[in-house]
Amino acid sequence: MVSAALKLESYPAVSRGERRTEILLRDVALSFASGKGKAKAVLSSLNLEIAAGEFVVVLGETGCGKSTLLRLILGEEFPSGGSVVVDGKSVTRIDSRCGYVPQKYSLFPDKTVLENVMYGPENAKSSLLGRWRPAFRRYRRDLRDEARAYLERMGLHKQDLHKYPHQLSGGMQQRVAIAQALLMKPPVLLMDEAFSALDPSTRASLQEQLHAVWNESRPTIVFVTHNTQEALLMGTRLVLLRRLKEDSQERSSVLLDLEIPTARLPFAARRRSTEFQELHDHVSEMAHRSSSMRDCEADASPVESEGVLQ
Predict the structure, then answer these.
(1) 224 forms bridges with which residues in the sheet?
(2) What CATH number is given to the structural domain containing 305?
(3) Domain count of the chain?
(4) Which of 92, 144, 147, 293 is the most exposed, having the fewest neighbouring CB atoms within 10 Å of its CB?
């Protein structure tokens, strides 16, 4: 039973207040050609405003457009309509202001853990300073120290830093991928189901470590997950996406957008609070109800559907 404090109507509309807008999506639509001259809508009239320093978790069932949303912000895909703006600039290509941690990470197999993490910033800087100049050697020395610190912060040991990816477990490789993204110090960090393939112990450890890093430097994080508990534990704000079926076309829209009230609690105390469990049950019920309604619509015959619509 959801308490009165957790009724949907009790949540105020999300307000950005005085904070600078970091990510802005206005009337974003995305569709793909699906054959016979028809287009399949993925997103339609999606509006989302994310302030600098927010930790936004995007929750929803498989196929509701969560990963597509990240790719639009990154600049890996472009909308069919509307606009995507990051840091006041329209996204027209893959944006270096955004770090990205995919579900299926990719490390260079012929480079050590430390070399993998250093690769991006090292190569970006070498073109400016030249590899043989003293300034670059000093930069590389400092970068190596910083990369070590991030890797150790993510739970790797000193003896792991000179191993190659194939010598690490999947969980350890994912820690490397996160350290790799953090070392670039992006103002925006996009994470796509980054913990979903990990065992519960590793997942819990990385959740806590990532949240501690965010709490210190406050990048803007957009974190995609299908796990309700993880969403409410990690974020300061929840965006719940759902699939809608209109005129035989499916598209995604925002079902719920709210500030997470338990975000004010210390990280370790969140899941133990009564409010956390009530909100978890409430969000899970909304997501299940939305999915069930869509399944019922899909199962209805064309004649039955027409009768209901009439």
Answers:
(1) 58, 192
(2) 3.40.50.300
(3) 2
(4) 92
Q: Assess whether 21 and 89 both reside in one domain.
A: yes
Asked if the structure places residue 102 within a domain, the reply is no
Alpha-carbon gap, residue 168 to 104, rounded angstroms? 15
Residue 8: inside a domain, yes or no? Answer: no
Contact 294, 244 (CB under 8 A): yes
Cβ neighbourhood burial of 215 (10 Å; 0-12, 13-18, 19+):
exposed
CA distance from start to end of the chain: 35
Strands 89-90 and 55-59: unpaired
The answer as to whether 235 is a domain residue is yes
Neighbours of 27 (CB within 10 A): 12
Range of the domain at 212: 13-97+188-309
DSSP 8-state assignment for residue 214: H
Domain termination residue (choose one: 156, 185, 214): 185
Phi, psi of 89 (to 5 degrees): -120, 135
pLDDT tens-digit profile of 166-178?
999 888 998 999 9
Exposed / middle / buried, residue 57 (Cβ in 10 Å: 0-12, 13-18, 19+): buried
Shared-domain flag, residues 219 and 173: no
pLDDT for 271 equals 86
Q: What does the alpha-carbon distance between residue 165 and residue 30 come to, in Å, rounded to a whole number?
A: 36
Bridge partners of residue 297, in order along the sequence = none
Q: Are residues 173 and 146 in the same domain?
A: yes
Assess whether pLDDT exceeds 70 at residue 65: yes
Cα–chain center distance at 291: 21
